[in-house]
Each structure stands twice: as structure tokens, then as C-alpha cells.
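The material for today's practical consists of a large collection of protein records. Getting from the letters to the C-alpha cells is the skill we practise here. To make this concrete, we reproduce a full record directly below:
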Amino acid sequence: MQLDPESYYRHLGRLIETMPDCSGNAQFSDDIHQWLGRADALISANGDVVDKIDWRGAVQRLNTAARPIALESLKQVLYRVLGAAELLAPASVQGTFIPVGDSFAAFVSISKLLQTATRDVMIVYPYMDEAALTVYGCTVPDGVSLRLLADARFVKQSLQPTSTAWVHQYGDIKPLAVRIAPEGILHDRSIFIDGTIAWVYTQSLNAIAKRSPAEIIRADDTAAMKIENYESVWNDTRVVV
């Protein structure tokens, strides 16, 4: 059964993000076998004949002395299929899977989301620091309110002075509000656009994809619930600026 282009792209991104370490010489665990099975099913569902042949040939070589070469072949097939899937996916989700070490792709992907806002952006991140402003703040369109919500236990000290300076410098053009939620209230890393669209990013905002692949996921099924919940949290938090 074939998946629609957006679902296929997202499934592939999640698959690569969760790729287990198969480099040892020991027998594979059940978790690794399950991952290989999911990968085979995805490539068989939408991949072309060459991809299927290359994938299964590499899998067969995993239990031989050629395992390191086979692992590289598996990665090549996965990224090749991902690249083809991205071309067919809707423009709104292209680039939402970020390969490891590609900090520029992370910046472009998040910036593209922020630039779609027309009224309001809320960024939820327990470990919020100045990167939300110094890296991403200027990509929010002029006149759009930017709201940052952090956790009292994990928020970085750099956030308050940077936010104060931002308000003095850009407050009339790019309105900013920063609030601190009580400890343990925030459980997501989220971006909410105009109170209607919800995105979840899988790694730290200030180091996304630095050490492993990352993904930015549109939470269509739970968007309304997430937005309502965090609006309630926002209204009952400590004001920073």
C-alpha cells in the first residue's frame, strides 16, 4: 500500500532519525530487527526497483565481514529515497527533516515556519535562551507578535537581558513577550503559528541536528488541544518582559 507524498516523507524522516547503532559485531537485537523491518516496508511501499534491490542487498551483507560497507550502503539508499520523497512532498513540509550536522538547514527550516505567521508566534521551549531571539527572532515578520515560553527550572539566565534589549531596540517593530512557566509544566518543544498551526521540533532549539538528525513535525491531529493548553499555561505564568 502506497503512502501519500507528505506521509511518506515524514515516515522516512522519522525512520532516519531513529536509526539504531548497528556498527558492533554482536548479533542484532530485536529492536534493530524491528527497525530494519520498518525500513524495508517503507522502501518497498514507495521506493523504486533500484532502491529495493540496493537496500535488500545491503541488508544481506550486514551479517558478514562487510558490515561497515553495508551500513554505508543502507544510509545511501535511505537518503536517496528521502531526497526523492522531499521533491514530491508539499512545499510546506519540505526541509522539515534535518540531517545531522546541518545547522544551516535547521535555521532555514525553522525560519520558513516563522515567516508564515501573520499575527502571532509562540515558541515553547523549557530550556529557552537567547538563541530564540539572536538566531530566529529577526526571521519573524515585522508586526507579528513573538511570544517565548520557558520553564522556571531550566530557563537560561541569558534570556532576560537579551529580551530586555530586544524590547528596547525592536519592540515597536517586532513585539516581544517572554514568560516563565512553573517547573515541570512544559512537556513539548513547540512552535504555534497564528493560534491555529502547531509544529513540534524534536531537539533543542539552540542545537537542533547538531549531534543527530532532527525533525520538525506538524501536529495536525493535536494542534487545537496543544494550542489551547499552552494558551492556558501562558495566561498563568510569570512575566519577564
Q: What stands out?
A: The CA atoms of residues 18 and 120 lie 32 Å apart. Residues 5-88 form one domain.
